[in-house]
Write a structure and sequence with these properties.
Elements (H helix, E strand, L loop, with lengths): L4 H12 L2 H8 L3 H15 L4 E4 L2 E4 L1 H25 L4 E7 L9 H10 L3 E5 L8 E5 L7 E16 L20 E3 L4 H7 L8 E4 L3 H9 L5 E4 L9 E5 L7 E9 L2 H15 L3 H6 L4 E2 L2
Helix pairs in contact: 1-2, 1-3, 1-4, 2-3, 5-8
């Protein structure tokens, strides 16, 4: 069996930002990770990380090794899988319609890189899924739920909409505006019930990725989680000032099997220490520790 451990430890340390988190993800001690990275640094002739109080900061060499070694690890894992005759393991995933898969991009990428034998089968059925990206009010019975962040709701507008110039909006500001409805989202329903003069509904979206495209196209406005603000360049999301703010908690749920629990644990570990581009995407979400 090829020893891929040092590169795996390095990749996990890069993703999570600490040697201790990398150790937990790989089931080894922190000194083992530190020693493996030191050997890589000796081999490549330079520091891979700057050690700081708040965690690890990759150097230029570290960035380059991360970029190159990810593909190498995936290919070697696939080779090992073929030579040993291991069958691929399918992870059945359900993503709630009002949650964007992009929020879990780094977690899914890291999980797949570290285990090339995994395949992901996305399903519309919550009952069939091993792993669910969902909010606290939509966790199926019998599943364990790990909260990752909480967020409030705002109004999504086309970027050139006159209301986009305001720092915050009320539901009254949206009176008379064409609304794209989210029939799958209980949070939006709670907001609409607070206002007597409801906007006119001009369309209903099937999921939030489609919804944001429709807003960007100028079809109407929508009530969305604030975390969607940077998911579509053609929109602006403004906070809603309401008498009773509506919030939701989002995270990962899993079936009570060892396989699903292990996958969920890895996903949460990757998410809680995201790469810089994911931190930018989640800039206005409040992580739950």
């Amino acid at each position: 069996m090829m020893d891929l451990a040092p590169l795996r430890y390095f990749q996990s340390a890069y993703d999570t930002g600490t040697f201790s988190a990398s150790a937990r993800m790989n089931g080894v001690s922190q000194p083992s990770v530190s020693a493996a990275v030191s050997k890589l640094e000796e081999h490549y002739g330079g520091a891979l990380f700057l050690r700081r109080r708040d965690g690890l900061a990759p150097t230029a060499l570290g960035h380059e090794l991360y970029r190159q070694s990810g593909a190498v690890l995936a290919q070697l894992s696939l080779l090992e899988q073929r030579l040993t005759g291991r069958a691929p393991q399918a992870v059945r995933v359900h993503c709630q319609p009002d949650i964007l898969v992009a929020s879990f991009q780094a977690a899914l990428s890291g999980l797949r890189r570290d285990n090339a034998a995994l395949t992901f089968q996305f399903t519309n059925s919550r009952e069939e899924a091993d792993i669910l990206f969902c909010s606290d009010g939509c966790v199926p019975r019998g599943c364990t739920f790990q909260v990752l962040w909480q967020e409030t709701y705002g109004a999504a507008l086309p970027r050139d909409h006159p209301l986009a110039a305001q720092a915050a909006l009320t539901l009254a500001d949206l009176a008379g505006e064409p609304l794209i409805a989210r029939p799958y989202c209980p949070g939006a329903d709670q907001l609409l019930l607070q206002e007597q003069a409801l906007p006119a509904i001009v369309a209903e979206a099937a999921h939030d990725a489609q919804l944001l495209d429709l807003v960007a196209a100028g079809l109407g406005v929508a009530l969305v989680p604030m975390g969607h603000a940077r998911a579509q360049q053609g929109i602006t999301v403004r906070p809603l000032s309401t008498d009773t703010p509506v919030q939701r908690q989002v995270g990962v749920a899993h079936r009570k099997t060892q396989f699903a629990a292990a996958i969920a644990k890895s996903l949460c570990a990757f998410w809680q220490h995201p790469a810089d581009f994911v931190e930018k995407l989640l800039f206005d979400r409040m992580p739950i520790r």
